[in-house]
Design brief:
By secondary structure, the chain is an all-alpha fold. It has helices spanning about 10-15, 30-40, 60-75, 80-90, 90-95, 105-115, 115-130, 140-165.
């Protein structure tokens, strides 16, 4: 089971407009959260499949779910039940969402229905975490392929961990 850092705050995941983000790909992003939010912000929301109604709370909106899962997987937090627990322990997140946030089934469904887009955002997060856009000693394609493989591996790991959590099935 992954240890949750008690200082982890999910507030920025759903409050994207308040966060000062780089407006172009050439500006330096200074945090994983900024990188995740920038990659999600640039997506067309119509490309994402919803797992809740249009009237559902902030935490159920597709871009918020995409940012949440991308951030958690990049931090190696995989189990949907653990992500739900993290949301429940974060005071700012609970307040913002009015104590209503997605459970493991919503998270699993969102991941299943939006896997390719999730992988794309996760590659951006992993690229940030490696500290380089391209390794000068490695051909661009090779470095990018490794990031794609790592993103796919993390998503598969989340799926495997969730499959072992039979209480939510």
């Amino acid at each position: 089971m992954t240890r949750v850092d008690p200082k982890t705050s999910l507030r920025a995941v759903v409050l994207a407009p308040e966060n000062p983000l780089p407006q172009s790909g050439t500006e330096r992003r200074t945090s994983l959260m900024q990188t995740v939010l920038a990659s999600v912000r640039d997506l067309d929301e119509a490309a994402l499949r919803r797992v809740a109604s249009l009237e559902a709370g902030t935490a159920f909106q597709p871009k918020a779910l995409l940012a949440l899962l991308t951030y958690c997987y990049a931090r190696e937090i995989y189990a949907s039940s653990e992500i739900e627990g993290l949301m429940g322990r974060d005071v700012n997140f609970r307040h913002l969402c009015g104590q209503e946030f997605p459970g493991p089934r919503h998270l699993r469904r969102f991941r299943r229905d939006n896997r390719e887009i999730l992988q794309t955002c996760l590659v951006a997060a992993l690229r940030f975490l490696t500290g380089r856009l391209v390794n000068e000693r490695t051909p661009t394609g090779s470095s990018e392929n490794r990031l794609l493989e790592e993103a796919a591996r993390r998503i598969e790991k989340a799926m495997f961990i969730d499959s072992m959590d039979l209480e939510d099935w």
